[in-house]
Specification:
The protein is α+β, with helices and mostly antiparallel strands and about 300 residues long. It has 10 helices and 4 strands. It has 2 domains: about 1-55 and about 165-300, no CATH class; about 60-130, no CATH class. Helix content is about 75%, strand content about 10%.
């Protein structure tokens, strides 16, 4: 049995090296296919983190009139905290609002002098309302129109984060669809190359195969080296992709984290923690499809 296994592996390696350029082209196409798939995985992961980053920054600044009754402010604060859509509410007093304004415009003497000329604190209390998700945005805005305290509100300052998230999802979907189409094209080309590689190998080894038949070699033994070669092609492809993906993630992650904050990182750790599952599943899927293509080529061109 061990002798047969040795001969099968030896014959598979001979096929691989004798058709080295076909093997290289096949591996290249498989690598391109897997790289596209992994780019889509990274894109999905990065998109989720960017959206989480944006949603974590969703807030509405509610500015009350300087003459607003503190009881009304407290009532609005309590009411907002009871809403399930609200993540947190912080109050900034009128005095603190003035301090923050002066710190923000410390390098702008004209603005500071205009405040001093007023002779009083022009600011009222401010509520900073954080939402749990972009979809809760409209509910919070509607809640601020509550008749119990809406007359005390001077202004509501907010950004349309829901629109931002929508644009991120739309762009990601378009890129994902294009990536899927590209993966399918690469994969079909790779399967056609494998099919033709097996056909060429059968033609090159036709005399050896005839001798194997004469000495009584079984059909399984004759087919085995071609299937083993498929395993090698799939294995090399996955290993090359792993050697590309991990260094690339390590290179781009610091810039990604720098732009979106440390909490938005973790791309490398995600692949490290799930690498066995991710690349194992890719290897199994790749092996299954390539072996089916090889089996079809053997059935068509190898009459044993």
């Amino acid at each position: 049995m061990f002798t047969s296994i040795y001969r099968v592996i030896k014959f598979a390696l001979q096929n691989f090296w004798r058709n080295i350029w076909l093997s290289v082209i096949t591996i290249s196409m498989l690598v391109l296919t897997l790289l596209t798939v992994n780019i889509l995985l990274v894109l999905n992961r990065a998109t989720d983190q960017v959206i989480a980053y944006v949603e974590n920054r969703i807030e509405v600044n509610v500015y009350f009139n300087e003459s607003a009754d503190q009881t009304k402010v407290n009532e609005a604060l309590t009411y907002l905290r009871t809403l399930p859509e609200v993540k947190d509410v912080q109050e900034i007093s009128a005095d603190n609002a003035l301090v923050l304004f002066k710190e923000k415009h410390a390098q702008d003497p004209a603005v500071l002098s205009s405040v001093d000329e007023i002779g009083r604190n022009p600011f009222g209390p401010t509520l900073v309302v954080k939402a749990r998700a972009a979809k809760d945005f409209d509910t919070i805005i509607s809640a601020l129109d509550n008749p119990r305290f809406r007359d005390e509100i001077r202004q509501k300052d907010f950004s349309d984060y829901q629109s931002i998230v929508g644009k991120i999802r739309q762009t990601t979907t378009q890129i994902r669809d294009g990536g899927i189409v590209l993966s399918i094209i690469f994969f079909i080309i790779a399967l056609l190359i494998i099919f033709n590689t097996v056909r060429v190998a059968i033609y090159i080894h036709r005399e050896e195969i005839s001798i194997m038949r004469l000495v009584g070699a079984s059909s399984r033994f004759i087919r085995a080296p071609f299937l083993v070669e498929t395993i090698l092609l799939s294995l090399f492809s996955v290993l090359i992709v792993m050697a590309i993906v991990y260094p690339t993630l390590a290179l781009i992650e610091p810039k990604f984290s720098q732009y979106f904050g440390s909490g938005a990182g973790g791309l490398t750790s995600y692949f490290e923690q799930n690498g066995v599952l991710i690349f194992g599943a890719q290897f199994i899927a790749l092996l299954f499809v390539t072996m089916v293509s090889t089996a079809l080529a053997l059935r068509k061109h190898l009459k044993v």
